[in-house]
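User: My instructor asked us to take a sequence, write out its structure as tokens, and then describe one feature of it. I'm not sure where to start. Here is the sequence I was given:
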Amino acid sequence: MPPRPRLLRALRLAAAAALSPVLASALVTGLSAPAHAADPVEAAKALAAPGVPGANDWSCRPSAAHPRPVVLVHGTFANGSVNWLAAAPALAARGYCVFALTYGQVPGVPVLRAVAPVAESAGQLATFVTGVLAATNAAQADLVGHSQGGMMPRYYLRFLGGAAKVHTLVGLAPSNHGTTLDGLATLAASFPGALDLLNAGCPACADQIAGSSLLTKLNADGDTVPGVSYTVIASRYDEVVTPYATQFLSGSGVHDVLLQNLCPAGVSEHVAIAFDPVALHEVENALDPAHATPSTCLSHG
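Assistant: Let's start with the prediction itself. The structure tokens for your sequence are:
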């Protein structure tokens, strides 16, 4: 059964309500790209998203149970502050060192982030991961990304040396093989001002259209790189990255998950999947497969 329109409207309203105070904070802080810093930790701190519960404690040291810090990578038009209001505290409560960045600012564009060229944003992710590893004394990190944040790290892994620094990449509704302009317009409708930006020019949006030169380059030699574990979590009701099966990856070390195979009643779509308890339970399973438990409609973080 397709998702009920009233429920989806409620989910979007909830996301918008959460977004409002964060937007105010964004206007104060600027959430701008950092200036060059010789200290990798300071460079990473300059990219850190403000006000994320459970995240960006730079004194955190990974435990033996969870030896790798988790870096959260938000999606197009969003920022790290709003995208991870559910996931960050849930993972922190499980004992992870959690870090969240905000990336992809375009000069002259207020508030909206993850709109810069994907390759440029991947460079910011590289800066952030390097700083997180330096701060935590960890050899590798795990990445959890939503939408563009699930695809863009693959550029970092393949072209910017990230494969040596990343153990696991988990993508929630990632744009791995692109989408249509209509799909991006649907996403933009959830963020004030995003439709105008999409119409005026959004480099990250152009990069995510199926068949773009960026995606052609990214996927030319296969979906994965050796040594990294991949999990993709998708929803049948995703109306942004369509068809939803294009989110899935092929190759060794890949685990593709369709939410409705775990909970047939689940109706989360593209935005809501970042807050979905079944999806977040699958994130936890991917980060700690040795202690994974079955995900069902009763799963919670």
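For the description part of your assignment, you could build on this observation: The mean pLDDT is 90. Try explaining in your own words what that tells you about the chain.
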